[in-house]
């Protein structure tokens, strides 16, 4: 089973990297960019059986290692 | 309109960061981790009207700035 995890800064926190990318896009001539937020993306291949157990495990991975729960939020999608 | 972009290393290329995270997860006691791939995640807020024009623009952003097309692939999801 594959878990896809998107980790982003919590809303309201300054995303300096995103701001820089927004400026770079504008200087390349792209119009209409309102905002850019940058985060991490992880794909984890697991050989667990049940969806429930996998989700619980991946949640724990995010809390313990992958994300910083003070400033980041994460979204987990499970698929094959 | 919001574009969500996942940028990952092409399949087959060594992902050293992913390998390190896999080892860290194992050392924390997580079982059954087969592999970890790490990438970038971006959310871009755009005020374009049509889905078609937005997708085309975001594709160009990926090719010109956000991704390295030699070693990376990207996936674009458009939503509100």
Overall strand count of chain A: 3
Per CATH, the superfamily of chain A is Phosphoribosylformylglycinamidine synthase subunit PurS
**Which regions of chain A have little confidence, pLDDT < 50, spanning 5+ residues?**
none
Order of strands side by side in the largest beta sheet of chain A? 2-1-3
Number of domains of chain A: 1
- CATH architectural arrangement of chain A: 2-Layer Sandwich
CATH topology of chain A: Mth169, Chain: A
Principal-axes shape call of chain A: elongated
Distance between the termini of chain A: 5 Å
Oligomer: homodimer
Structural class of chain A: alpha+beta
Give the chain pair forming the largest contact, with residue counts.
A-B, 33 and 33 residues
Q: What is the average per-residue confidence, as pLDDT of chain A, rounded to a whole number?
A: 95
Query: SSE order of chain A in H/E notation?
Result: EHEHE
Briefly summarize what is shown.
Two copies of one chain form a homodimer. The first copy, chain A, is of the alpha+beta class.
Question: What would you note in describing this structure?
Answer:
The structure is a homodimer of 80-residue chains. Chain A has 80 residues and is an alpha+beta fold. The first copy, chain A, has a single domain (2-22, 37-79), classed as 2-Layer Sandwich (Mth169, Chain: A), CATH 3.30.1280. Helix content of chain A is 35%, strand content 38%. Chain A is built from 2 helices and 3 strands. Chain A has helices at residues 16-27, 51-66; strands spanning 2-9, 33-46, 72-79. In chain A, strands 2-1-3 form a 3-stranded antiparallel beta sheet. Chain A is elongated. The mean pLDDT of chain A is 95. The A-B interface holds A 4, 6-8, 18, 21, 24-25, 28, 30, 32-48, 57, 60-61, 64-66 and B 4, 6-8, 18, 21, 24-25, 28, 30, 32-48, 57, 60-61, 64-66. Strand 2 (33-46) of chain A pairs antiparallel with strand 2 of chain B.
